[in-house]
Amino acid sequence: MGLHMNMSFRYSFALAAVMCAGLSMAATADAKTFRWANSGDVSSMDPYARQETFLLTFNSNIYEPLIRRDKDLKLEPALATKWGQSDPTTWFFDIRPGVKFHDGTPLTADDVVFSLNRANGPGSNMGSNFVSVKEIKKVGDSRVEVTTKYPDPLLADKWAALGIMSKAWAEKNNAQNSADMTKNEENFATRNAMGTGPFMLKERRAGEKTILVNNPNWWDKPTHNLTEVIFTPVSNPATRVAALKAGDIDMTYEVPPADTESLKKEADVKVLEGPETRVVFLGFDQERPELLESNVKGKNPFKDKRVREAIHRSIDVDAIKRTVMRGQSFPTNLMVAPGINGYNKSLDKRPALLKPEEAKKLLADAGYPNGFEVGLDCPNDRYVNDEKICQAVVAMLAKIGVKVNLLAQTRSKYFAKILRKSDLKPGDTSFYMLGWSPAQTYDVHNVFEALIQTPNPATKKGQFNAGGYSNPKLDALADKIEQETDKAKRDAMIAEATKLYVDDFGYIPLHQQAVVWAARKNIDLVQPADNSFPLRFVTVK
Amino acid sequence: MLAFILRRLLQSIAVLLTVGLVAFSLFRYVGDPINAMVGQDTSMEDREALREKLGLNDPAPIQFFHFIVNAAQGKFGLSYRTSEPVGRLIAERIPATLELSFCAAVFALFVGVPMGVYTGLYPRHWSSRLFQAVSLIGISLPTFLIGILLILVFAVWLRLLPSFGRGDTVMIGWWSTGFLTWSGLKALILPSITLGMFQLTLLMRLVRSEMLEVMRADYIKFARARGLTNRAINFGHALKNTLVPVITVTGLQLGALIAFAIVTETVFAWPGVGQLFIQSVQFSDVPVMAAYLLLIGLLFVLINLAVDLLYFVVDPRLRSQGGSARVAGH
Amino acid sequence: MAVASNNPPLLDVRNLRVEFPTRRGTLVAVDDVSFDIAPGEVLGVVGESGAGKSLTGNAIIGLLEPPGRIAGGEIRLEGRRIDNLPYEEMRKIRGARIGAIFQDPLTSLNPLYSVGRQLVETIRTHLPVSMPEARTRALDLLKEVGIPGAESRLDHYPHQFSGGMRQRVVIALALCAGPRLIVADEPTTALDVSIQAQIIALLKRLCREHGTAVMLVTHDMGVIAETADRVAVMYAGRIAEIGPVRDVVKNAKHPYTKGLMGSIPNLGVRTERLTQIDGAMPRLTEIPAGCAFNPRCAGRGSRCLSERPDLMPAGTGRAACWLHDRGGVGRPLAKETIDA
Amino acid sequence: MAARSGFSGWLHRASDSDVWWSFKSSPMTVAAAVATVLIVAIAFLSPVLAPHTPFDPATLNLIDGLKPPAMLSSDGDWTFPLGTDDQGRDVLSSIMYGTRLSLAVGFASVVVAMVLGIGLGLVSGYFGGAIDAVIMRIADVQLTFPAILVALLIDGIVRSAISVQRHDEIALFVIVGAIGLSFWVQYARTVRGSVMVEKNKEYVQAARVIGLPPLLIMVRHVLPNVTGPVLVIATINLGLAIITEATLSFLGVGLPPTEPSLGTLIRLGNEVLQSGDWWITVFPGATLAALVLAVNLLGDWLRDALNPKLR
Description:
The complex is a heterotetramer. Chain B is mostly helical. Chain B has a domain at 88-270: MetI-like (MetI-like fold, Orthogonal Bundle). Chain B contains 14 helices and 2 strands. In chain B, β1 and β2 form a beta hairpin. By secondary structure, chain D is mainly alpha-helical. The chains are: A alpha+beta, B mainly alpha, C alpha/beta, D mainly alpha. At the A-B interface, α1, α2, α8 and α14 of A face α2, α3, α5, α8 and α9 of B.
């Protein structure tokens, strides 16, 4: 049947076919088109629209940062040739000469100052990278100086994802600020982009496809050989995998673990895998005197370390790795991943699993001989196999008498439920799954500050410590780590603080999920550990 | 006739207002849009400030009033998720959905109706029974499974058709069409079949039972007694009399197709309003969801109007009665 | 008076048998029915519901509804056998040689087509005429059946006509290709009493003018008495009595016919239920042995319980009753003894 | 006919009538009936028959995960005849429990739709006028918003309304309510039509004269008349409801995966369709197809058999 239809279509639409052939022929000859897909679309072309890895990495192909990360996530010069601290509260950045925007205008220090201020301005989602910043100013034609309120040794790391825009372009198109949700008008920069990067935006159809083309006037020597890049969001994982097998796309980002094995068997496909810097973990409500969602009344079982230990040591992350994750995970006992500054391999050992009787005994000692019931919050579209991991946890805890009621929901609803409120009141959860990566700084302090320190509305520490784990000793150490510049001393403190939360069973780190990408055999690309995907490393054979 | 259309238009406005109320008041409370708008790392103060600026702390009736006033002007605000104007997001996506729904409807009609006629004329023939059993597959397997199986067979194994997307599209004004390119046409085949399968089954079964019914009618017997040819009887007399219910159902199903496209579009990464809607649900993107529901309401109103007008063309009884809506009994 | 036998009959039905196979066995709905109709003659067929009269009509026009089928006998039209013709051959005869009129004019016309279109369609199916010619003919027919303002009515739809007018249209449709015979199955039953007479008169006049024979199936003895030349009375799938209408009405030879006539105080009353005769017509599954009428017959004898009477000459016509046989009905039986 | 009314009368007629005969004479229908009864019985008895209790997380062991079907592969384990999924759930037992859940959803939502539809149909047909117009208008609107859209809507409200409580516990009711709500129109139209016919009959007028509530009289006379058509709609809706539940599950608003319905099983399996672990999808898919096919064949036959015109 298919053949018949094809034939009749072929003839009756010959004219149309000729017409469109003209369109597509124009680009062929030596064209290297790279088609790739992801589950979701880039939410905006504005580089400051949202602080999320995918948007930042996608837009970095068009807008380049002052300092970029290489294949190994090390900092290297991009639009800044030189940078550093002239004194503890002053940073300088020397702007690379001779760089041109896609429209041919040269890059100046004014553009950099404008961009940084825009990133710190209304509508921007990048404000958290500017907490320490006092002033940004131009010093001469090719230097930008930043003064900070207090010494901020990590400023350069934070800004390594911040793309630089053209002041003139933004002003001409009335896009001096990022899109403002409160005004009913569109921001030009939401669907248009014009930077200095290796690729230029040719066509943007939100939710449908985004086409980039090579920037022939790029300042750097291209390591890619692409002339055109077509990005399509394909939300259904099965379709994405099928499209790759069928050769309709050249590469897919975020392959479902279940499909990695079968993709490896495909002759024309290769699978790339590596650990991600994000750690997926479970957290307890250790703050409320009585759990929100439990049959235990009048007390909070998770305040008892024995309960936390029993649970921690009953979760078999290796089994989760084998079946749920199909081998695509790296079990851990720490809240940071290898590759993050402050990761301590010697401490990354999970305590031995308990037999159910042993765990039950711990629970009995804590006063719960018959176990108890508790609700578990879990996203179902945020982390790889998040919901299935939670299901497995439910099964494992059932064996020690802890009846877990799983509530898995889509990310927006899930985050709304579990995260702390604006006044840092605890989130509406008793037991939850979360993932965290210190993606801006690649330093463990970010983890301490956001997740492990006691929530404090005054200092803004512990904003994402949803369950309110608290250890004053650790709080003090973490504050010292922030200021300490001596690496040896700092590492020692980090080790000490790490040991504290490990011994407290404050969290249950599960694993780093693997970053699994798959591509056609004729594609060469680089897979950094932070799951960013710079197109400048892609070549098509 | 004019009075009838006027009455219908008034009813339509009432329907649209109701749908608007539903659209707005329901989704106002789904999830927290702030979480969709900002990254996970955004500070609590920023979140609260944004909430205040968006008017999410206003009383609901005031929000609804603003919503209706703006909607009437085609302003649905900016999408929380992509910060693009909702009106344009929808306008960009609607051609994809309409073309897909249209092809699915054509597929369902041009396969379903002849199959229904055949099985209705020869109900006892083995091939009729076969058709009927096979057609049941259309309602025995979930759409998403049919879709993915079609992809596996025709895209992955046979490599005949694309696995997803619309192929190349051509812009005619603001309308992007896949009808003018070879790849666009090829891309339409699998999704149309997937989407139309259910409707095909429905139509076939409807036409069959209507045919069975009509073939027993006295005027068919009288037509036979007048010695008319089978061709004239089956297609001239019988089929035309099954048209009224078929038009009703096709009209309603066209609305359903657009809504059912949610699933098909998700499976085939078809950039239509259905996919936009489901993404919006996941992100609690209220403006888009509300606009989508209003759009469905509007399409419903238009389709119903068209169906009513078609009745006039098909059924002379209505023409003289001055149009009291539907024929009784269907 | 009986039609002279040396005239070749227009329609000749011999030993017609219609069966319905069902899961409880085969029902014989029309059993061994024989009659003929001369050109231009009006034959009335009368009987209760289920007597088989409509089925006989349907068998003649070849439109028995499955699973009903002709299981025996012959039907000849103008000497040509038509009961075993292929569908397509028979189709050409229907409308052209045999017309038909059914009970309900409201449902006989396709509501979606104008009457003109339905007329033209029928004419052009059977006659080699052009569109305008067919239209002219259709107009003439409408005038002929007495539709006022025929020109403007041609493009009207059936629902725009009253019941009587519609039946006139139906008659026009039946006549439009000039058939030799019309099978009219209860043509007035669904109409108002006031209109019935008009329609019957119209039918009679037209057939006389066109020389068309009519097989008039009805409940209504009054209609028969007024219209028919001969009448056939059917009972339980058989002909009980057949003969010239005046004789049958005035001097019935079959006890059933007598009851039938007795039950008509004045003509025009329907014979749906014959309260004057005790009991009801047996269901087809329960037809008794011997004469089918015997359970209700006051004058039955022992022979009536065992032997089935065929039509035999009785007076000017023929009746299926042993009373008219030389052997008689046999030993008389009291009603009680049978019932006991 | 008039002597016997109500369901017993109908049942009696049915068992004694052509319906039974036409049933026996159609092998396909008999096969469909046997399949339906078998599936329903097995599903209903799943707590007794199933080798495992897949809804009880305490019995699951990840060690057992991803075992292929024992009957087809030497890697399999006969404890799990049809293999296991990635949670170590026995596929056979999951299917049995899942079918039970799917059937429960199907039946419950059909009952909801029936009660709603018959009620509204009676009211609409009996009172006529403005009430009728409003109800039928709502019915028209309802038809534009198919089950999945209605369910997404209802699910949205419910989730936000009870955000703190456990959503999963009421997910079943949400789905049943949503599907039920979107199927009532057909029943309402059927009943309404029948009521409009009966309304003007003498016995209703008579009942009014002697002071009986005519609505009650009509309920008693109309319901037996519409039993046939309603039953036909119900059969077809049953299959549709099961499929709709599966689709909702695909869109992320179905039943919780810890207690998967047949549809949820397929949705979960859909994700691993290309992984080589085909048994996770294929067996539930085949079961669903068989069930819906059988139910629909029954519905088809019932419609033809109960329609006197087609006999």
